[in-house]
Amino acid sequence: MIGWKHGDLLELSDLSKEDIERVIETAKAFKEVSMRDIKKVPALRGKTVVMLFSEPSTRTRISFELAAKRLSADTLNVTVSASSLQKGETLLDMAKNIEAMNVDMIIVRHKSAGVPQILARELKPGVINAGDGCRSHPTQALLDLFTIQERLGRIDGLKVGIIGDVLHSRVARSNIYGLIKMGAKVTLCGPSTLIPPEIERQGVDVTYKLNEVVADADVLMCLRLQKERQEEKYLPSIREYVNAFGLTKEKLKQAKPDVLIMHPGPVNRGIELSAELADGVNSVILEQVTNGVAVRMAILYLLFGKKEKAS
Amino acid sequence: MLTLIEKAIIVNSKGISKEPQDVLIDKGVIVKIGKISNPDAKVIEANEHYLLPGFIDLHCHLREPGQEHKETLETGIHSAAKGGFTSVVCMPNTNPVIDHAKIVEGILKEVKRIGLIHVFPAGAITRGQKGEELSDMLELKAAGCIALSDDGKSVQNSQLMRYALEYAKMAEILLMEHCEDATISKGMMNEGYYSTLLGLKGIPDIAETIIVARDIELARYLKTRIHFSHISSRRSVELIREAKAQGLQVTAEACPHHFSLTEKAVQGFDTNTKVNPPLRSREDVEAIKLALKDGTLDAISTDHAPHAQEEKELEFDAAPVGMIGFETALGLAVRELVEPKHITWSTLAEKMSSMPAKILGLDHKGEIAEGKDADLVLVDPKKEWIFTKEQIVSKSKNSPFIGEKLKGSIVFTMCNGKIVYQA
Amino acid sequence: MTNSSKMMDQETVRRALMRLAHEILEKNKGIEEICLVGIRTGGAVLAKRLQQCIKDIEGVEVPLGILDITLYRDDLTTAHTQPILRETLIPFDLTGQKVILVDDVLFTGRTIRAALDALIDFGRPANIQLAVLIDRGHRELPIRADYVGKNIPTSIDDDVCVILKEANHNEDEVIVKKRGAQ
Known about the structure:
The complex is a heterotrimer. Chain A is of the alpha/beta class. Helices cover 41% and strands 14% of the residues of chain A. The model of chain B has no long low-confidence stretch (mean pLDDT 97). Chain B has a single domain (54-360), classed as Alpha-Beta Barrel (TIM Barrel), CATH 3.20.20.
């Protein structure tokens, strides 16, 4: 296996196929650590990890915090206002202040696409993108890939359907890259107003008919639908969305019996997925959450290995 | 006091002189061109570099009054002079908006104090640029406005735009339209493959073309003229080409960044690539170049739009639109258009000087000829140079071209027969 | 230029391991509450062989675990190339057990220090004993082995290579490579 050369994780497309395999392999080891009685290893003792979040995201933040703590790093939560203009302090000012306190890694979640890039360009510590705008959510895609690999033993050759609001989904964007890179065939399905332009150029198929995706998929990945999309006129009504694109037990009858149902959370029960399916045997939604910690431990471990070498 | 420019290759829109010529200037006017020797004249050696008519910018932002932290009339004028511009039209989106004679007078007074180059304010089409009621166009014209524009936005209401065109026709003042249908343009960059990739909300080209098409229909119906600012898309070019073929009184301009960069430049999230209209696709860039060549687009304007460092050092979503343009306009035009032989030096003189002069009705400008104003720029056509942040004289440094190699370097800029910038 | 000499072959490795198995059984008076934990990767292979040796003698398979000490290393973020992390597999409770920790080469003792920290995180063994195939000296920590296959005096910058069949080699070998020797 070749060496790991990344000090930042800004978007999934920075990683090669070998890199992704390495993350999955490493995450496997960390999943074992998470199963132990004492779930803590001293690997990152003395390191400081700052979580810079401009959007409320309890799940991702907790997952990263747990991952860092299980590696013995110290963690610090910083909530930044959505627009740095409000305080008259630029985002960069804020980040440079944090850098000046000698932190080792910055995990950033921001509603504006590109913020992790801007920080990585200007700052010494490593930067991990925990979701930027509608653009990228690399650790979510990695944990999804890990979950698929663990459950189905492969990714290559699988048929994956991604269903819902692709236009506003950073999860979808990162997964499209990762799944295709690992050899899966990806079909997108959602209302035409929520499918981004020229997405086919990334090597995916698009359909507006849910039954076409459901019929031969090995994995069905549902995306969260923000209820505001109706107010923004993308959709006639939530009711119509549920009828056309919501997954129910009834619609799943024509699917492969062991199809995996995934969702990045939090699930709008009864919209993207019926409650029955969310809790059903095909659902791996909670496993995704478990694997999220292992994957984030793997990323921290790998990135730290690189950063120190550089200095 | 006489000035004699010796041994210059004269570049006009009609052609380029085969032999070096001498140009004699008296009281700000070109009095003679040819082989001249005059012992009373102060001699300026041109070393067989290219002498062009001073550039005329149809579209820039000088920010004063109200936003002097971005640019002042003084810094803007120095920046323009350094870029070879001897006349510029400054847009009315200042604070307060240029919609009142007193504001125009204030600007012109300050411009006169500074001297150097000609600044022609554009007044607002609608009061406060709010798109609700017409500004006092006759008064604005009398105060010195050379044109009207609601730059930054279009007049959204078609009825009001109709009245604006009719009234401007009577007032004999040019309307310049910033083409953007606001109901469909809420975005950060061009809509397409890259906006999808970057997760940034897209601005489709139809946001521009819908207004271009509407205004062409209005101009046709009202039998009047209209000028389109900073055209960025292939489809707009097609509409304008068709309108011109039908004999409509339509003129249009494009900016260097719209023929030098594609939307791909946004990939690094450099906020200096955030402009309105946005950087478009390769296809659009090629269409703009072709339209400059075939005359569909009449002029090259800068849309010089300074913003302070702290304003641009923000998230891409939050950063304001615009980039500075005076000091890179020639270098980019030569690199992108003249060097690859898209257009000749003469066509460049046409796009940057003679056509803007015609559009504005500046009869004494835009050509190097006896009797014309001595607004001139001397260019070393072969010289390549690196555009660095340190050499920028504009108050703001928001350019995506910093660090790039440009071609064609300005030796001096002369306005009214006086040197206003010297390299 | 390196100059290498073969210190053990297939047969001597086999005999050494068999002797270690006997010593372990003798010292612990049988197999009661004994378990083997090998350190990845060489130690894990040797632990598996010791398990077989003990089975050959006693007819019983003692529990076997594999330990990856990477996360406990003291040079983790300064190492030149980052080691690839593998799973730790200890499918039994260590508490109250006599743990025989197995490694291929005992050198500075730092790996064993890391392994001890890791083992303690898995439970509270009754005691921990150390079995190694090679002890090459140059300890940097107060650690010694309870069972040694072979003592090989080395210079500090020699390389000791334990080559085992399980890692796709024709036969077992222990080689010392002299560095800087002509």
